[in-house]
């Protein structure tokens, strides 16, 4: 399928379209066809300096943080409404950038940002930005004020959704934001910039700077930045934390995952397996930090679960992401495809049983495709069970009893998501309480946008979404009234 070529020649700096300081460009390559589908300027350090200077001015002396809350929220409501009208365009652009199947792109990649923006408005409207408390000596006013200028660094797998997870609460709080999209997926960020211009964000409040890691690090280390909100890999998160420490810059880090789906022996297997398929290889082609990539099966039902999971993976429709019938599209790049294929080789070398998948689908060699893959007889100590593969690969791990299942689920450097499947929801909740992970679902899979989202251990620091997501862009101030 021939995709429309999209080219942008300017950067969105402080609310204005301006020529970049340099001549470097980023070419966006379709992961399904290998053709170039877009081109944007590559932001430079000078562009970062200009953007941060304008953001500082907007925050330190501009109108945005000083507007009554309701006036800011009206602007964000217009932003959410504009996002809603752009869903087909946003979905098509993201599908062309990162290979998301178009049906999933419409529902989540493009549909979720408008929802998140609207919910951020509701949360901010209900939040008590100033309260009075009776203190030990004096009455105290506790105020929550915007943290300042925010660097929002987002990944390629869910770019618009993650961008709005950061932008909406930061803007509601009164912050100014420099948004740094991934070089693999910069095109959708231009749609967000266009909407920002349409709804009338004041000068300096938002900049959008596509760039590589070097420029990202310069942005994170910039002394004009008060807060970094980052989503991406553990390695990059550690580096950001290290760089930000020099200025004591606040950080929120949403990092990787190796989430466990525990199937208890009384679970409905039809429901469990269909849910796991949707939450693993079909979830953005397996490229999701929350994906259920470790399936824990009781030995008493292991063979049946292995058969069902294998059949489901074989039945998944792999193909052109713009075809509505496609369930699994390509990985984002050749580099990512090779990474996943390398892990499949490692799994076989470690002694796991390849139940299905394991290579490139016939007839799709021109794209970055990997067949949905299921490994059986996996020991939780194997690399394929411990390291984040970020592709359509599932590890089936047997367990002896419930205590063993909980031990295996917790035996991970990660702690982001997870699920428990059982006929007894109350018991499922009890099991979920014992799993050290940031989000879990009993008998399903969902990221609830009104609840805090984030991880334990190497899965990150801080929370997004809900009231906790708003608080991450606020500083608490106490005013003691002595007389």
TrEMBL record:
Annotated catalysed reactions: an aldehyde + NAD(+) + H2O = a carboxylate + NADH + 2 H(+)
Key words of the record: Oxidoreductase
**Residues covered by the Aldehyde dehydrogenase domain:** 17-479
InterPro entries annotated for this entry?
A: Ald_DH/histidinol_DH, Ald_DH_C, Ald_DH_CS_CYS, Ald_DH_CS_GLU, Ald_DH_N, Aldehyde_DH_dom
One Pfam match, given by its short name, reads Aldedh
What top-level branch of life does the organism fall under?
Answer: Bacteria
Entry annotation: catalytic residues = 254
- Stated EC number for the protein is 1.2.1.3
What residue ranges are annotated as transmembrane?
none
Q: What class of enzyme is it?
A: oxidoreductase
Q: Which family does it belong to?
A: Belongs to the aldehyde dehydrogenase family.
Q: Which PANTHER family match?
A: ALDEHYDE DEHYDROGENASE, ALDEHYDE DEHYDROGENASE-RELATED
Q: What is this protein called?
A: aldehyde dehydrogenase (NAD(+))
